[in-house]
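Q: My labmate handed me this sequence with no annotations at all. I'd like to see what the chain might look like in three dimensions before we decide whether it's worth expressing. Could you predict it?
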Amino acid sequence: MAGSVGGPLRAIVFMIVSVVAGGSVLVVLFQLFGNYQERIAEAQKPEDTVMVIVSTRDLHQGVAIREEDIMMVEIPPRFLGEGTFLSPEFVVGRIPRERILANEFIRGERLSDPEQGVGLNAIIPRGMRAISMSISGPAAVGGFLNPGNYVDILLTSGDRTITKMQAMFVLAVNSRMRGESSDEATRKRGKQSGNVIFLVTAKQAEEITDWSRSGSLSFALRSDLDVKPIVTSGADMDALLGIIKKKSVPRRVVQPQPTPDHTSTVRFIMGQDVQDRALIRGRDDDEEEEEE
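A: Here is what I predict for the chain of 292 residues:
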């Protein structure tokens, strides 16, 4: 009797345990499926974006930015750089301090201070100066000198030429700044010719002004990618012709030797009279030879 009752009871217990285990598995699977769906929904959800200002073309130094030079694009906030402008009203009319490439973010550090105004003074960094120098003949580098180039400044004084400054940045040539054509510069500032404007320190401005009074200055155009200074010793006519200057040899001063004394003294005694007389040997020898 007990055996017959125990069989159905074990079956019932087994079924209950199986149902509970199956339910637990279903609950776990449902939770996993729910989390998976949440992740899919999160991935499909559009990412938050912000509107930023980028350039539509290359913007050149010293040329005011116009509305057609910029556009607004959406980017994720994680790509937003420090100082990037979010509204065009803060960009239009500003002056680039340096060249800005097309599709590049417009950042405040790339633009001149609004208080500096418009023109050449707007692109001069704080603590720097702009100095104008007249150019003609060889100094003009054959007319190929343009704003944004780098040049060396050479001083010729007398028969000697030496490089005084290297990799000097050209701000403007005549009245033309970087990114402007000659016609645009003429319309804005009138026709000017024969001068170049460099970006220098206050000390360099003093030195260039002094050199222009002591000799003639000329420029040597160099690559924009080659701005490393090198050591030069200058050149003069003797060096160009291969003339080697002889070093002066100091003369040795020979002191005159003292003349040997050829005289001797002879004492004559005659009674109480004693006399000393000088006897010159050379003369006595000559006299003796004459007597012979």
